[in-house]
Amino acid sequence: MISESPKEKPRFKLHPVAILNSQRLRRSLMDTYDQKSFYKYGIGIILLILSIGSLFYTDKLVEELEEREEREVQLYAEGLRYVVNSPLDENFNVIYQVIEDAVNFYQIPAIYVDENNIPNPNKNIKFPDKVSRQERERIIQERLEEMKLEHPPIPVELGKGRAGKIYYSNSFLLTQLRYYPFLQLSVMLLIGYLAYLAFSSARKAEQNRVWVGLAKETAHQLGTPLSSLMAWVEYFRSDPTIDPSIAEEIEKDVIRLEMITTRFSNIGSIPTLRQEPIAMIVANFINYLEKRVSSKVKFEVHNQLAEEQTTLLNKNLFEWVIENICKNAVDAMSGVGQIHVTLQAPPRAKEIWIDIADTGKGMTKAQANKIFNPGFSTKKRGWGLGLTLAKRIIENYHAGKLFVKSSEVGKGTTFRITLNADILEGS
Questions:
Q1: Residues 348, 3: Cα–Cα separation, whole Å
Q2: 8-state DSSP, 17
Q3: pLDDT at residue 12 is higher than 50
Q4: In this predicted structure, what is the pLDDT of residue 427?
């Protein structure tokens, strides 16, 4: 357990104007984020409505076309009945040919079966080239069995108690139209998915520009007062009437500000990653951080990693992540409680897990889902950017993950960082 600082360091209070500005920025970021989410869901709902409407409309067309094809086959059956039962001196060939042409026009596959259950004439049945008679009969029989499952047969009264039957199946056009809505729905879903990817990519690109611009400008603005502060440190040291410890304390804060400036300047640039002993970095930084927060917050580091365990890190940025999570934990506990940092390597996985658990007020599931959104914060003061930047640093620069492992209202929250594990050569 890291030793407790005997004396809590005074903390500066934000000016009311700074607090107001931070709240305005946070609301602006949240409004922008929510507005874009609304557009995303709106596009999805519109596509869904269009798809459902298309399905109902096409289904109605299919029903109407199916009824029309059934009427055509019934006319074909009537034509056969008149031809068979008409006197020899009556000529129905013209009428029958018109009906037959209608069946052929719609390409409705049909097979007439006589009273002896023998297939005779057939319409719109396709056969391979140079097919034998036996093969032709086999194909007709197979199609006939399929037709029996599709539609009930249409009877053809032949007189004297005799009756034939016409079996048929849907035309190729009707079959196409029946499956068209599903094809259309698939295309719409694909378009929606591509639109979502494009929207997300554009949003991330825009966020990247905002973060980079904000970070670079912050680093630039800090540069001038830092140079002035360093000059004042040297002036205080040169004045024998001023207590030297004052200059030392100011210098510590200046060094701290320089580190913060370096962090901001690294945002948007490809950071340099080095093999670092992860447990040592975490322990040293927690020891440093403990002296700069409330003395009523107890830190405990539980290291379950091998001594030689390393990973690729940018030390400055990684410490920034730990600081953001821990300071959020301190605020969640109102400056009183415990923070447990556990480092472990899961079996059969080339990963390192760093769990940071607090005994604070915890979060609801809805809050946990939004905790990394820009501008979201459960505090009245704050920019709502710390955890957002922490997540980007871990996932974009270190190829790891940062997420809320668990949270329970009134009991606390646990954040988990996962990193790729490496072992020093020769270990």
A1: 34
A2: H
A3: no
A4: 41
In our burial notation (b when 16+ CB lie closer than 10 A, e otherwise), range 230-257 reads: beebeebeeeeeeeeeebeebbeebeee
Question: Any idea which fold 271-420 has?
Answer: Heat Shock Protein 90 (3.30.565)
Residue 132: C-alpha distances to residues 67, 101, 109, 122 (Å): 35, 27, 20, 16
For residue 227, is pLDDT > 70? yes
Task: Give start-end residues of each CATH 3.30.450 domain in the chain.
Answer: 52-170
**Rounded-to-10 torsion of CA 196, 197, 200, 205:** -150
Query: Exposure string (b/e) for 46-60, b if CB count within 10 Å is 16 or more?
Result: ebeeebeeeeeebee
- The mean pLDDT of 177-183, rounded to a whole number, is 78
Please give the distance of CA 301 from its chain centroid, rounded to a whole number. 34
CATH class of the domain at 52-170: alpha beta
Domain with CATH 3.30.565.10 in the chain: 271-420
State the pairing for strand pair 119-123/110-113. antiparallel
pTM metric for this prediction: 0.52
The 10s digit of each residue's pLDDT in 181-225 is 778 778 877 887 887 788 777 777 776 676 677 777 677 677 778
Burial (CB count <10 Å: 0-12, 13-18, 19+), residue 192: middle
Structure tokens at 18: 């700074």
The helix or strand, by DSSP H or E, that contains position 142, with its residue range, turns out to be helix 133-150
pLDDT of residue 147: 87
Q: Tell me how far apart the alpha carbons of residues 239 and 201 are, in angstroms, rounded to a whole number.
A: 57
Question: What is the model's pLDDT at position 63?
Answer: 83
Exposed, middle or buried: residue 77 (CB in 10 Å: 0-12, 13-18, 19+)? Answer: buried
Give pLDDT, residue 67: 83
Single-letter amino acid, residue 58: T
Look over the chain and give the mean of its residue pLDDT values, rounded to a whole number.
78
